[in-house]
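Support case: zinc ion complex. Customer-provided input:
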Amino acid sequence: MLIKNANIITWGEENRILEGYGLLIRGDRITAMGPSGLLEKEYPQEEQVDAGGQYVMPGNICAHTHFYGAYARGMAIPGSAAKDFPEILEKLWWPLDKSLTQEDVYNSTQVCLIDAIRHGTTTLIDHHASPYAIEGSLDEVARAATEMGVRVSCCYEVTDRDGQERASAGIAENVRFIERLKTAPNNLLGASFGIHASLTVSDVTLEACRKAVPDGIGFHIHVAEHEVDEYDSMTKSGTHVVDRLEKFGILGPKSIAVHCVHIDAREVEILARTDTWVSHQPRSNMNNGVGLGNVEAFMRAGVKVCLGNDGFSNQMWDEWKTAYLAHKLWNRDPRRMGGYDVVKMAIENNAKLAQVFFPAAPLGVIEPGAFADLMFVDYHPYTELTAGNLPWHMIFGFSNGDITTTIAAGKILMKDRKVLVADESEIAARGRELSIKTWERYQKRFQ
Ligand SMILES: [Zn+2]
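Agent response - structure generated as follows:
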């Protein structure tokens, strides 16, 4: 396939905007990039996709999400409103995840991936929970991902909150899926070893996770999203969450510590020293009223901070915009969280994190040899747009509706705003059928 008449935003080490360029795609890779006219002459037989002067840029990457949370949309939560994050877990997420069946897991993943495709998000790192449908649940996530052609890294959140048997089943599900990928590697699928959070796992379970994790695999765990995680760790182990996780071998260059809102300076230093990834989700932090991690300081300390969505919409530019605005308000300082800080997380670090799971070719950059994960953006700037001021055009100008075409692994997933790889209305209709039953099971948990 030859993409012609594109204004290419390359990202990568030195971001460039190349006007009137073309891309040759063979298999799942970009094999050539050059002026459109030259490539058209050189490859006259190639199937042509005319970008019509749109911006063509690498697909968005999401560092942390929860497909399983899809049915929370519009769901009534009984009783008085949750007063803090621990109550949000107890009233919303924990009874909801217990209500999920394998089919719910599959359909929840599908609806999230349609949202991702519609908004140019081509790689997502998921953190899954369905305590009453554990075994095989990651296969359901993976099935939806491979059918729809989106890159997904999977893991199951191990937790003690539903008893020892389900904690062990969670460990087994992680190991089973990791072994499955080792036996049958697939460039669209990745895996980490999931743990819910320090506050829901005992020392015995943490030790069991450490013993079970196969070589070369990292962990994916929520860290200090609310103060209660730190208080729990102090009570249980006499030390902070990050210290506790380090002691149990959970940190490292393939592990993701999610949120880190309430960590202290020493914990920041440990995350930097162990080369652990941190993922930041400002929309979720605002919604849960938990505060904001001081991620600019983390980055200054050498921590690799990424941007996720925590199960909010897969419209990653909304997360960009929120990050840009939230830190200014939180700190009452308009100098906080500049455009380049957002780019550092969402582009540079997310691309490097994605390579942990999809190492076969570069991601998050347009260059020969890279995976052909792309989106077309129909944006018409009325002020000059350069590689230098692009972040501010993206934050103040780009709109999710501008994304017209999404390509992952060299396959067109959406063209001219029509999703080609799935029947959107059928999947949404199935979601409405299934979620009504899920909501009924959820409500019964309060009776
Ligand atoms: Zn999360």
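Residues 60-357 form a domain with the TIM Barrel fold (CATH 3.20.20.140).

Case will auto-close in a few days if no follow-up is received.
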